[in-house]
């Protein structure tokens, strides 16, 4: 007979309370330091390995000690991404309500795959998904999925597209796979985001099936060229358009693309990673006119909506195709039933995942329709102010028409451009990223953070001015 074993002895309720209170203090101290701290990290990767590394402990370590030492060791390697002076890539900060809801998400530890694992998490997703659909003017019947980010949103949407296109040819890809399947063409703009290509690769659609359509200097797909390409072969097609080119912010002529796709009987997918949020603003909605006519949309919440990483959204105008591409079932699962209109695992590539709906719900409720519009308009205004200010910086050339929140600029040659960028980042006053556009190096500046102020823009401009002068003297 095996003796009964007691369970592990965990920390008492009082210890847990002390740990979480201390963690909250560390977090609030970090946020309070953002305005005065350098935006970039202050420790090298090797230094961080030394601080965080070492042998795995033989026995347990007090959780309070673990958190204190983790925070102390990691702090020099943290980039102040939540700061209003962080302009790298297209990364937002965290709205206070969204951050707080994300903390609760960790504490509640719900799995929103289906209602039985936490109906509150499932219902929060239902409500938040409906709010987003309404806010962005997407079809009321569109299905949706909460995913990690735009990469998985592309995979979700393009899986639905693959299902629908092949089904039209009498091929059940979920049953028969791709071996021997009819050919499918995918038409992409020359300046699309690489995550679209990657999603296609995951879905078994290789480069030989992809046709690249020319784009203009700001990255917009050329609609006449798209029409010509669609007419080349009588083969079912998937067209991928873009709302917000990653360097310039340029938006494809979505109405023109939608017309071309509709006439050819093609599925239209929109990569709206950040730019689709322009639909929430009366001032910028015209830029994405026609987006509502697409068949699927992929975009992020951790960019312009400013919820904590990670948070992406996939919407599909054809729920049957969406569900068919994603659904799974097993005898042990508790799915469906009265009051359960959508088990979330039927719409996402994941079984187990974080309950991202809570943070999105909190962000939308805290901002409201007007607040989201104001966030989009204010950050776009900051981008225009920054671009205008660059005119006073010697040797600086703005490379794009600033239509949204992206500014692209360079200095003379590649070496000078990279030197200016390095000096700006090293100054700690702002953080921007470099890129290669065409044949030359450039600096990308993205204004995506709810905290960015006029003062932050002024500090960033001063940092660029000082860097340019310093490189000129050097």
From TrEMBL:
<dbReference type="InterPro" id="IPR015424">
    <property type="entry name" value="PyrdxlP-dep_Trfase"/>
</dbReference>
<keyword id="KW-0663">Pyridoxal phosphate</keyword>
<keyword id="KW-0456">Lyase</keyword>
<keyword id="KW-0032">Aminotransferase</keyword>
<keyword id="KW-0808">Transferase</keyword>
<dbReference type="GO" id="GO:0008483">
    <property type="term" value="F:transaminase activity"/>
</dbReference>
<dbReference type="InterPro" id="IPR015422">
    <property type="entry name" value="PyrdxlP-dep_Trfase_small"/>
</dbReference>
<dbReference type="InterPro" id="IPR010977">
    <property type="entry name" value="Aromatic_deC"/>
</dbReference>
<dbReference type="InterPro" id="IPR002129">
    <property type="entry name" value="PyrdxlP-dep_de-COase"/>
</dbReference>
<dbReference type="InterPro" id="IPR015421">
    <property type="entry name" value="PyrdxlP-dep_Trfase_major"/>
</dbReference>
<protein>
    <submittedName>
        <fullName>Aminotransferase class V-fold PLP-dependent enzyme</fullName>
    </submittedName>
</protein>
<comment type="similarity">
    <text>Belongs to the group II decarboxylase family.</text>
</comment>
<dbReference type="Pfam" id="PF00282">
    <property type="entry name" value="Pyridoxal_deC"/>
</dbReference>
<keyword id="KW-0210">Decarboxylase</keyword>
């Amino acid at each position: 007979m095996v003796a009964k074993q007691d369970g592990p002895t965990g920390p008492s309720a009082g210890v847990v309370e002390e740990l979480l209170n201390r963690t909250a203090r560390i977090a609030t101290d970090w946020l309070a330091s953002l305005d005065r701290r350098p935006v970039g990290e202050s420790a090298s990767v090797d230094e961080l390995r030394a601080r965080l590394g070492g042998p795995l402990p033989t026995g347990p370590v007090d959780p309070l000690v673990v958190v204190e030492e983790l925070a102390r060791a990691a702090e020099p390697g943290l980039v102040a991404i939540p700061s209003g002076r962080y302009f790298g890539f297209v990364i937002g900060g965290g709205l206070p309500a969204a951050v707080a809801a994300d903390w609760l998400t960790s504490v509640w530890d719900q799995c929103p795959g289906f209602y039985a694992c936490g109906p509150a998490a499932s219902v929060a997703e239902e409500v938040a998904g409906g709010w987003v659909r309404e806010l962005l003017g997407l079809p009321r019947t569109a299905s949706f999925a909460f995913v990690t980010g735009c990469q998985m949103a592309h995979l979700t949407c393009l899986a639905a597209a693959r299902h629908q296109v092949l089904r039209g040819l009498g091929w059940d890809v979920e049953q028969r796979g791709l071996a021997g399947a009819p050919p499918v063409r995918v038409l992409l703009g020359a300046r699309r985001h690489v995550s679209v290509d990657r999603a296609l690769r995951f879905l078994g659609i290789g480069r030989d099936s992809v046709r690249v359509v020319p784009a203009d200097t700001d990255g917009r797909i050329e609609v006449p060229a798209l029409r010509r390409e669609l007419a080349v072969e009588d083969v079912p097609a998937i067209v991928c358009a873009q709302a917000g080119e990653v360097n310039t912010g340029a938006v494809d002529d979505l109405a023109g693309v939608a017309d071309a796709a509709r006439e050819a009987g093609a599925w239209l997918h929109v990569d709206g990673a950040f730019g689709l949020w322009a639909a929430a603003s009366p001032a910028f909605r015209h830029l994405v006119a026609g987006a509502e006519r697409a068949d699927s949309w992929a975009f992020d919440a951790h960019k312009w909506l400013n919820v904590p990483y990670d948070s992406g959204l996939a919407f599909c105008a054809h729920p049957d195709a969406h569900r068919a591409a994603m659904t799974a079932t097993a005898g042990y699962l508790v799915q469906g039933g009265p009051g359960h209109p959508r088990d979330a695992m039927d719409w996402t590539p994941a079984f187990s995942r974080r309950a991202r709906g809570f943070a999105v719900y909190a962000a939308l409720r805290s901002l409201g329709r007007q607040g989201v519009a104001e966030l989009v308009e204010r950050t776009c205004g900051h981008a225009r102010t920054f671009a205008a200010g660059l005119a006073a910086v010697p040797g600086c050339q703005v490379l794009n028409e600033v239509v949204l929140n992206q500014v692209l600029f360079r200095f003379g040659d590649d070496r000078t451009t990279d030197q200016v960028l390095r000096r700006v980042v090293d100054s700690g006053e702002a953080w921007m990223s470099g890129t290669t556009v065409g044949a030359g190096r450039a600096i990308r500046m993205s204004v995506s953070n709810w905290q960015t102020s006029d003062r932050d823009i002024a500090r960033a401009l001063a940092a660029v001015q000082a860097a340019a002068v310093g490189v000129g003297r050097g």
